[in-house]
Specification:
Structural class: alpha+beta
Shape: elongated
Distance between the termini: 62 Å
Largest sheet: 16 strands, antiparallel
Radius of gyration: 37 Å
Strand order of the largest sheet: 12-13-14-15-16-17-18-19-20-21-22-23-24-25-26-27
Strand content: over 45%
Helix content: 10-25%
């Protein structure tokens, strides 16, 4: 055993010296004990994979240097069988080996090379009373190994018979088996294939499936092996009845969350999907789904669904800030359950120096309530920017549905009445606008995506005389793409807008296009770019174009640095000027979402603009 480090001091030690002595004894003595206190096993011969498998089978971690020879002999009893099993598991059936044991002196040199002990000597002016090297006696095991030829697979017969023979759940797996003819025999891979087939069968409803043949045959003369795995799937069970326990919501509504129908082939992943659907509905605090015992006679599996509702009312309150709207406070009230049909309403309000609103929204679930719904809403909004002042009232009905390829479609009919003041010109507009919009987004991580994209597009119009004061047509397209680069991210966004109408003065402020701000051309204030009147005041435009490219890279924890270039403007004619800006930014992936701080420099006008914004990247 190692002795505790001893130092002779020529003067009384200080507190610092005693502390360093203690550290030195820990770092110098303890590691040398750890290095020599456990029996060592040296394997000579064979590949590292085989050596590691033998070590795992022998598992000598409980044998220490001070173990008696009697204990060592007892512990090594049966080691030949363990070594044989370890070799056969990797296809070595003809190996030879000899396991030798001896007690040997082991030299520790940690003390001599320990920089901390050297520092203590220098500080305390002492010399170690312990020699630089200290002999210790410990058991040393040596395995002389001749693995012999590895047995290879010469014939591989893995197949499914029965009803599941052509089921993709099996055929896709068999097409990518983790073993092939010519590979070494590995028993763990063989067992993994068996377990995978069994598990797939159970998950897909082949409850009665079993292996009709499962064997490995080894020819010791030719060093070859045959693997035969023949699985008889039997018949596939079906979904039976789905029983819903007591709930404040109607059974008819809850059945709309089913991703299957009774009589469909059983699939355990759809049971999980049903649970996720009900949780995502936001009605329930918990959902438990029990599978009843399979009915062998009818070959079906019944389900029992138990739910616990969330509280009926939910309130939210928040504070935030951005350079576009300034500081803001918000409050919301949601009724999750107006009736057993699952209707909900939500009241939302926000106040800021620039943008304040109050809205009411009533939602009716559709045939696929997670994605399809009808929304009735109304609200009032006040907006006060450097360029416009407006007060608008709206009422809208919208049908939202999930279309093919995960596009979300919104059909709407919106009534808008707006009083606005732009460049000291006051006006009032009334519009009834049918509209259609599509949106879609994908991301590998919603919190901090390194790859993803988003597209929003919308079209709306109005016809003079049909409630509306003016005829118009307007389209918008906005997109954003995030891609990984050099360990960071490239974020690119672009936006287009176009309006067709005869009398631009009749276009309300909320439908005019401006540029500038946190999510537009940084380096300029919120909505300060666009066509100007004779006095140089921005009045907004019929069209807009904006674009940006940004690179950010994490530098420490949840913080990243960014650099960016923006360009864009709003305009009325084919001749317009693109305003450009560039800058640097700091990103913080905070618990409540990304926070962005930017310093942007206009490339035409000089100076700089500070920007603060929050919200998801996609």
């Amino acid at each position: 055993m190692s002795r505790v480090l001893g130092l002779s001091l020529q003067s009384p030690p200080s507190a610092i010296t005693l502390f360093l002595l203690l550290l030195c004894s820990v770092f110098a003595a303890a590691p040398s004990w750890a290095a020599t206190n456990q029996v060592s096993l040296e394997i000579r011969g064979g590949k590292s994979e085989l050596q590691d498998n033998i070590r795992a089978h022998l598992d000598l971690s409980d044998i220490h240097c001070n173990s008696s020879e009697l204990r060592l002999r007892s512990r090594l009893r049966g080691s030949d069988q363990k070594i044989s099993n370890a070799m056969r598991a990797l296809g070595h059936y003809h190996g030879n080996w000899t396991l030798l044991r001896e007690q040997s002196a082991v030299k520790t040199t940690l003390l001599k090379s320990n920089p901390l002990s050297k520092a203590v000597k220098k500080i305390a002016g002492s010399k170690s009373a312990t020699p630089d090297t200290e002999p210790e006696s410990c058991w040393v095991l040596t395995l002389e190994l001749t693995p012999g030829p590895q047995t290879l697979i010469s014939r591989l017969d893995v197949r499914i018979i029965g009803e599941g023979e052509n089921d993709p759940i099996f055929t896709k797996y068999l097409a990518k088996l983790p073993v092939a003819i010519g590979d070494p025999v590995q028993h763990d891979v063989y067992e993994a294939i068996k377990n995978s087939i069994n598990q797939r069968a159970r998950n897909a409803g082949y409850i009665d499936g079993q292996f009709q043949e499962h064997r490995i045959e080894v020819n010791t003369d030719t060093h070859s092996a045959t693997i035969a795995l023949v699985f008889n799937s039997g018949s596939r069970y079906r979904f039976g009845e789905v029983a819903f326990g007591p709930s404040l919501l109607s059974t008819e509504l809850m059945r709309r969350y089913l991703p299957f129908q009774s009589g469909d082939p059983f699939d355990s992943s759809k049971v999980v999907q049903l649970q996720n659907n009900l949780i995502s509905s936001n009605y329930f605090a918990s959902v438990n789904i029990d599978q009843e015992n399979p009915n062998a006679e009818q070959q079906r599996i019944d389900l029992n669904v138990q739910t616990a509702e969330k509280r009926k009312y939910e309130t939210t309150a928040g504070i935030g800030a951005s350079t576009d709207t300034g500081p803001r406070v918000s409050y919301g009230l949601r009724n999750r359950r107006i009736n057993d049909a699952g209707h909900t309403y939500q009241i939302a309000s926000q106040y800021s120096p620039v943008l304040s609103n109050l809205s009411f929204q009533y939602t009716i679930p559709g045939s696929k309530p997670l994605t399809d719904k009808v929304q009735l809403s109304t609200g009032v909004e006040r907006k006060d920017t450097d360029t416009t002042e407006s007060l608008s009232y709206r009422a809208e009905i919208a049908q939202i549905s999930l279309r093919s390829n995960n596009w979300i479609q919104t059909l709407s009919l919106k009534f808008l009445r707006e009083d606005y003041d732009i460049a000291d010109e006051r006006n009032t507009s009334t519009l009834l606008m049918p509209g259609i919009a599509w949106s879609r987004s994908e991301a590998n991580d919603r919190r901090y995506p390194t790859r993803g994209w988003r597209i929003n597009t919308a079209a709306r119009g109005a016809l003079q005389g049909v409630v509306s004061d003016v005829s118009l047509a307007q389209i918008e397209l906005d997109s954003k793409v995030i891609l990984p680069l050099w360990g960071g991210r490239v974020i690119s966004r672009g936006g287009l807008g176009a309006t067709m109408l005869d009398d631009f003065s009749e276009l309300p402020a909320s439908l005019r296009f401006f540029a500038g701000g946190d999510n537009s051309v940084r380096g300029y204030g919120y909505e300060t770019l666009g066509p100007e009147n004779a006095e140089g005041e921005v009045v907004g435009g019929k069209h807009r174009i904006t674009g940006s490219i940004e690179y950010d890279h994490r530098v420490w924890g949840d913080f990243a640095l960014a650099t960016f270039f923006d360009a864009g403007n709003a305009f009325d004619t084919d001749t317009f000027t693109l305003y450009e800006s560039a800058g640097l930014g700091l990103r913080w992936l905070s618990p409540i979402g990304p926070v962005r701080v930017d310093f942007a420099f206009p490339l035409k006008d000089g100076g700089f603009q500070f920007h603060l914004s929050m919200g998801p990247d996609l």
